[in-house]
Write a structure and sequence with these properties.
The protein is α+β, with helices and mostly antiparallel strands. It folds into three domains: 68 residues, SH3 type barrels; 84 residues, no CATH class; 147 residues, 3-Layer(aba) Sandwich (Aminopeptidase). It is built from nine helices and 16 strands. The strands form three sheets. It has an eight-stranded mixed β-sheet. It has a five-stranded antiparallel β-sheet with strand order 4-3-2-1-5. The chain has a three-stranded antiparallel β-sheet with strand order 6-7-8, with helices on one face.
């Protein structure tokens, strides 16, 4: 199954095409405005706004700049506008990346057992284990009307014995989120995507490395049996049939923290993609929590990634996971955007 259509991420269509804002929301854009005063040479004056288009309607566009400020733009003053996605090499800081690019990088860091393109959408399945590996990532246009696309998605997942589910980056896919709400799809697992630059993260975790205790760290490119036994998705261990998803990325790395007696105390997984480190599966055993082990695991992943030219870091965390959010914020991570799952429950 494959449909094709331009996804608009290369700047086509461009303003004033009425479909432009639907493609551009959630992306980095460059907008030229009529300054409503003459320019230096006496001709028309212009001013430019560059940043992330967070929302757009007929009355106002909201653009978040590199400095974190939000500018309100009157669309009647827009002379020209285009999407200008950054490449990883051009980013000044991790927060500069656009939502679509970061989601595509993250999708490479945690891959399903099966993946199929449907226009600009990616259909993913892995026997139901983890939301990211069993949902549609709808970056771009499916190339067919929405009702037909949803029917095709439903059939694809039904053939695999799975409920159809979307992972919706917000505000990039507010449009699809609203459409699925109107169709009665359930809301599931609101998640923050957080980012930081690698060098500040290494500095933030330096203290945990400079005060060694009775814990040793092992770094490998394959998880051993102890690591796999410690990994949890919620309260569920990983089924043997889907263990390949742990290593299904270009450059996975696994950290295991052990006590002096050899017992496992904490684990973590990283994935290196396009100068980004994705941090996943940081787990600390219940008897060993609040001892800085999570920070040590993240520091080990950061050191490994830095030695291989990585510049930025991302992770995903449930918005109600207060202990993890407190740790990540303390280490310098900032919220970049959110995503939600939308699930069609039959009956």
């Amino acid at each position: 199954m494959c449909a094709s259509s331009s996804d608009g991420l290369t700047g086509d269509p461009r303003w004033p095409d009425p479909s432009w804002t639907a493609h551009a929301v959630g992306h980095r854009v460059s907008v030229r405005l009529d300054a409503e005063r003459p320019g230096p040479t006496g001709g028309p004056g212009y001013r430019d706004v560059v940043g992330f288009l967070e929302s757009a309607n007929n009355e106002s566009w909201s653009i978040r700049t590199r400095h974190g400020t939000t500018k309100s733009v009157d669309p009647t003053l827009v002379v020209a506008a285009k999407v200008v996605p950054d490449t990883p090499a051009r980013l000044r800081t991790a927060s500069d990346i656009d939502i679509a690019s970061l989601e595509l990088i993250a999708a490479e860091g945690w891959q399903p057992l099966e993946r199929e393109a449907f226009g600009g959408w990616s259909l993913r399945a892995a026997a139901g284990f983890t939301g990211r590996a069993n949902s549609v990532l709808p970056i771009g246009d499916p190339g067919v009307p929405l009702d037909a696309a949803i029917d095709a998605v439903s059939s694809w997942y039904a053939a695999r014995g799975l409920p159809p589910m979307f992972q919706l980056p917000l505000p990039l896919r507010d449009d699809l989120n609203n459409a699925l709400t109107a169709r009665g799809w359930d809301h599931y697992h609101h998640t923050h995507v957080m980012v930081c630059d690698l060098d500040p993260l290494r500095m933030a975790t330096e203290q945990s490395r400079s005060h060694p205790d009775e814990v040793s760290l092992e770094i490998t490119n394959q998880p051993d049996d102890d690591w796999r036994d410690a990994f949890r998705y919620g309260d569920i261990g990983i089924p043997a049939a889907v263990t390949p998803i742990l290593t299904a990325s270009d450059h996975p790395v696994f950290v295991t923290a052990r006590g002096r007696d050899g017992t496992l105390r904490a684990i973590g997984r990283g994935a290196l993609t396009s100068q980004w480190l994705g941090v996943t599966a940081v787990e600390v055993g219940e008897p060993h929590r609040r001892q800085g082990l999570g920070q040590r695991v993240i520091g080990a992943l950061a050191d490994y990634a830095a030695a291989r030219g990585t510049r930025h870091v991302y992770l995903q965390v449930g918005r109600d996971n207060d202990p993890a959010l407190a740790l990540y914020t303390r280490l310098g991570f900032e919220r970049h955007h959110d995503y939600v799952y939308r699930l069609l429950v039959s009956g």
